[in-house]
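Hi P.,

Sorry for the delay on this. The queue was packed all week, but I finally got your sequence through. Input first:
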Amino acid sequence: MSSRRPLACSIGLVLAALALPLHAWELGYSLATALGYSDNINQSATDPTGQAMLIPRLDFDFNEDGAYLRARAVGQVEYRDYLQGAFGNEVRGQLSGIATWIILPQRLSFDFEDYAAVQPVDLLAANSPGNQQQTNVFTLGPTFNFRLYQTLNGQAELRLTQSTASQTHEFDSTRGSAALRVLKDLTKLDRVSGNIEYQDVHFIDRGGGPDYRRADAYARYQSKLAQLDLDLGAGYSRLDFAQGGAHGGALLRGAVNWHATPSQTFTLSAARQFSDAAVDLVVDPAAWLAQSTGGGIVSGTTPINSQVYLERRIDAAWAYQSERVRVRVQPYERKLAYLLDPTLDETAHGVIAGISYRARPLWTLAFDAGAETRSYSFIDRRDQDRRYDLSFTDQLGRHWSVRFDLIRNERHSTVSEQEFRENVLFCTVIFKR
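Then the structure:
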């Protein structure tokens, strides 16, 4: 498979959506060209390589809320030219897109979802350009809605999902799934549902797998008040592997979103569930946009493989926004216990934080930071990754701006050869529609 195929599929889907005869759509985009320099582009502990880069970039945010199509897609596409040739030039992209084609209002719809990201090939190695790959998760299928009794409704779903990675082909899979839901509206703002889901997972590459079947049964409560949103679920999951062996356990999910004031929001979410890399890459467009710093594409930290794990996760967030100041803090912790290969077990905790200050009507100073500590119990290793981005943006006019970034990347590790420090400087000229 071509290394660019997952990204090409994502871009093609977005362009196809934009070509539809829409009426109430909105499209925001920016075109940027960044010139930068890294003093350790290969993120080496002993042999750092300096490299200049030229990066044209497209950012877009598409929204459609029509009678027959509801869609939201946000993403970035960039071309990286390593001017001294330390690495081959490449195209990178990330996308979170969801579209619902309403065939029969309140009865039948067809859904499309696509999630593209840049992830490491080997999470234990330095995150240099040679250790990054394009991943993609694409889902489509119909949803049938039917009335059972007054405020009691039913919903049936069929989905086909394909996940691909440009280098780690054991990740490549096809998934067929079905779901049956019974939903009851308690009030206009409260809903309770019973859900049964079934999934059949087949890995395309011989190195992946083994194939497995999964069944989930759970109850869910959702409430959306003026200042408080609740989403709580509890049930049971069972997985049966093709080569024998079964695993079962409680399924617990919860999320609380509190709009404390017009300028402050608190969020808390937690989960105990079976999961894998393909599920981890699914990020809602609104959440993806909220986490964006406005810079270039940053590689994630998802272990790309075909293994299923028991995930225990807790996330929190606080966001504040005023006319001149924006602040966000997002701590998290997760534990991954792999079902078939415990040598991959991982514990991670970290925080993402950012603050921006509009010093003048056209000047914005921002600082974004991310820190993550990962421990691997079976290989006696502990890594600490740090990223700091200090930026200054000058709005030159209605459409044009210039941005300067000073970025610091660090890794501290119990394996000395894996430690590195990198300093990067960027100057970016931006045209925004």
